[in-house]
Design goal:
- The complex is a heterodimer of chains A (about 150) and B (about 110).
- Chain A is α+β, with helices and mostly antiparallel strands and about 150 residues long.
- Helix content of chain A is about 35%, strand content about 30%.
- The longest helix of chain A has 21 residues, at about 40-60.
- The termini of chain A are far apart.
- The model of chain A has no long low-confidence stretch (mean pLDDT about 95).
- Chain B has about 110 residues and is α/β, with parallel strands linked by helices.
- A five-stranded mixed sheet of chain B has the order 1-5-4-3-2, sandwiched between helices.
- In chain B, helix 4 links the parallel strand 4 and strand 5 (about 90-95).
- The chains are: A alpha+beta (about 150), B alpha/beta (about 110).
- The interface of A and B includes residues 28, 111 and 115 of A.
Amino acid sequence: MPDNDNDRYLQGRFEVEGRDFVDAGLVSSRIKKGLKAKGINEDIIRRIAVIAFEAEVNIISYATRGTISYYILPDSIVFEAIDEGQGIEDIDLALQEGYSTADDSIREMGFGAGMGLANIKKSSDIFEITSEIGRGTRVKSTIMLNGK
Amino acid sequence: MTLETICERLSLKCKCCWENLKREVTGGYAGDLLSDVMANSTAGTIWVTRQVHQNIVAVASLKEHAAIVIVQGATPEKETLDKATKEGIPILVADMAEFEVVGRLYQLLYPAGD
């Protein structure tokens, strides 16, 4: 569940369906537009676009469904992706660049290169991930607004 | 340099968004792994790829690329062109292979050779 503390800062919450590659990028695009409308710094928007796209593609590639939410707090932007799905067996391994469990259909489209979670982590100031086998995965990224 | 000039010099066929060919190109990027392009390309870039499916438009739009160049004379999917039209991202097709497109593009964009 999302952090209740953050709920009053919620800017948007979107449902993502697994295997829906047709709409991949749609949620990221909406978040980007939402942040632009709020006048958030361009560099920060670019980082969140990477985080959102990778998280969205991860849900589509590996989960049954998921929810993506983002929050604008006074000092940071919080991005959260929670999915229902297979979960990740070994998170350290999944974070290694190049490691992927993607099947050929995903790889043929240029996804599944094993860079997704690593990209999310690199673009975040604080990166948190928890996962439960057979239940799903939760990724939370925090991007600080100071120093912009 | 504008997209228009690049299209002319490299004989690229524009498949949509002709109205945006006056757009300035600030650099180039080549890649077929979408996460790599997401992580490392910059705004204003002309992106060279062999991918033809619609997700390339999502990447180009999120990264604010100037245009996408599809290599080897490959045909972009109809959904790709529809989405590109909606997002205002010109899709350009080159008959050459990716290596040659990138080489010639590099010479055009950085004529001093450095």
